[in-house]
Design goal:
Blueprint lengths: L8 H10 L4 H19 L2 E4 L1 H16 L12 E4 L26 H8 L4 E5 L33 H8 L5 E5 L6 H7 L2 E4 L20 E5 L2 H11 L17 H5 L8 E5 L9 H16 L3 E5 L4 H19 L21 H12 L2 H14 L5 H24 L2 E5 L15 H5 L6 H6 L3 E8 L6 E7 L5 H13 L18
Parallel strand pairs: 2-3, 2-4, 7-8, 7-9
Antiparallel strand pairs: 1-3, 4-6, 5-6, 5-10, 9-11, 10-11
Helix pairs in contact: 2-3, 10-12, 10-13
The structure holds glutamine (GLN).
């Protein structure tokens, strides 16, 4: 592996600007690294060497001509496979989208192309972003670079593993219930879910539209801030996009100390189900933040106890209607019934039967059930009320504090296969991440150390009020400066290539 691959994206961008490195050299190094190690990590489901190198060459030529470039121009990036890329397979790791070539680019993809970041390829994920381990992918699971027998989190385990194993300095993920933050926590990387609406969802294949949000996957807080500044901003193609300027996020990372800041420790995020090592590292980090001038108080969020249940009613309800478009006519796979008449209905049934995996089917059935006339009030209606309670608890909390802190995942990475037969255990992975999606607030995970029991990374989560992304980054940057450099300690750095 080339030494510079362990550098942050910000440092790589500086070297490119200073002429110490070319984008072609950097992109080739990433592609070589992918070729050398991705057969064991399986982070990528598509690698576009030609496209990435073409962009890299363009950047180098433009720089040589003295053109003004975006600060991140020439730094390669990987995309979760649920963001549409024009003319290039976008499968959401589902058989049902096999062979579909989107006719347009997602807004985030367009922005990356305009800023000229070489796109290395598409990363593995749980099918349609449903899962916490990447084991529900039609391509098979990704592996955690810290321990190849363990999960890299999900649904965006591919993006997190690509960044953690130094195959890509930057990646994008999508977070509906934790799919950026939990993979970040278990792979020792930084994962951010911006404020709902801060980053356009146009061209993100929808899972649960009121919860979905695209965000950065990086090795440093500053890299995430720089990437969010690039992909954020108003988009007329997304009616839920915030119509306001992108806040100065990189600047927020530079602020020293936390004097005058009030932080709230969520009372509910400890105890049963939480690994004692996760709690120990969390408590130690909170002490360090106090040492940086923050005032810390405990905050009671009683509705958090019901947030997970509400999410697993609202999310399947929205997903079941979003996934109705996959009908065997318009996208990808088309399967005709083995016998009987070929009608729109029988083709749709045969295609969906063959094209969707078990977890997706489970959620479609759950979603259509909770939306059905007889059960709507009891399930979907009650879940929406709980959602309002979660929002109220958070509104009340943010009257008292500037940011909330809690673990990003209740445990470290568990062994592959451990929870595949137990959906409830899998859903429990999201216990601390889901409230932010239900309330639309920004939240991010920052690595703070490794468990003394299993040596695996632990993530610390910061939540801020809606539109308070800059506050979140400010706190996260202090957390990072006061913690060990976990991302660089990933054992993947010492792998002998070809082994
Ligand atoms: N693990 C959660 C789920 O399975 C979150 C998914 C996500 O954020 N995309 O729904």
């Amino acid at each position: 592996m080339k030494d510079f691959l362990t550098c942050s994206a910000t440092e790589l961008a500086r070297r490119l600007r200073a002429g110490e490195l070319t984008s072609v050299e950097l992109t080739e190094a990433c592609l070589e690294r992918i070729a050398a190690v991705d057969d064991k990590v399986k982070a990528f489901v598509l690698v576009d060497a030609e496209g990435a190198l073409a962009t890299a060459r363009e950047v180098d030529e433009a720089r040589a001509r003295g053109e003004e470039l975006h600060p991140l121009a020439g730094v390669p990036i990987a995309l979760k496979d649920n963001m549409v890329t024009r003319g290039q397979d976008t499968t959401c790791c589902s058989r049902i989208l096999a062979g579909w070539k989107p006719p347009y680019d997602a807004t985030v993809v367009r922005k990356l192309k305009e800023a000229r970041l070489p796109i290395l390829g598409k990363t593995n994920m749980d099918e349609f972003a449903m899962g916490s381990s990447t084991e529900h992918s039609c391509y098979g699971p990704s592996h955690n670079p810290w321990d190849l027998d363990r999960i890299p989190g999900g649904s965006g385990g591919g993006s997190a593993a690509a960044v953690s194993a130094f195959m890509a300095p930057l990646a994008l993920g999508s977070d509906t219930g934790g799919s950026i933050r939990q993979p970040g926590a278990v792979t020792g990387t930084v994962g951010v879910k911006p404020t709902y609406g801060a980053v356009s969802r146009y061209g993100l294949v929808a899972m649960a539209s009121s919860l979905d949000q695209i965000g950065p996957v990086t090795r440093t807080v500053e890299d995430a801030a720089a990437l969010q500044e690039l992909i954020g901003g108003h988009d007329p193609f997304d009616s839920t996009s915030l119509d306001e300027p992108v806040p100065a996020l990189v600047d927020a990372c530079g602020e020293e100390g936390l004097a005058g800041m009030r932080l709230g420790v969520v009372k509910q995020a400890r105890g049963e189900g939480f690994d004692p090592e996760v709690t120990r590292l969390f408590d130690e980090t909170v002490k360090k933040l106090e040492g940086q001038g923050a005032t810390v108080v405990e905050i009671d969020c009683p509705s958090f106890a019901y947030a997970l249940a509400a999410y697993y009613l609202i999310m399947p309800a929205e997903a079941s209607s979003n996934l109705a478009r996959f009908d065997g006519m318009r996208y990808g796979l088309r399967v005709e019934p083995e016998d009987g008449p070929v009608t729109a209905e029988t083709v749709m049934a045969a295609t969906r039967g063959a094209g969707f995996g078990d977890e997706v089917k489970r959620r479609i059935i759950l979603g259509t059930h909770v939306l059905s006339a007889g059960y709507f009030d009891a399930y979907y209606g009650s879940a929406q009320k709980v959602r309002t309670l979660v929002q109220r608890d958070l509104d009340a909390a943010f009257e008292e504090v500037d940011a909330l802190v809690l673990p990003a995942s209740p445990t470290t990475a568990f062994p592959l296969g451990d929870r595949t037969d137990d959906p409830m255990a899998m859903y429990m992975c999201d216990i601390t991440t889901i409230p932010a999606n239900l309330a639309g607030i920004p939240a991010m995970s920052v690595p703070v150390g490794c468990s003394a029991t299993d040596g695996l990374p632990v993530g610390f989560q910061v939540m801020a009020p809606a539109r308070g992304d800059a506050t979140m980054y400010r706190v996260a940057a202090v957390v990072e400066r006061r913690s060990d450099d976990v991302a660089s300690a990933c054992p993947a750095a010492t792998w002998k290539e070809g082994e």
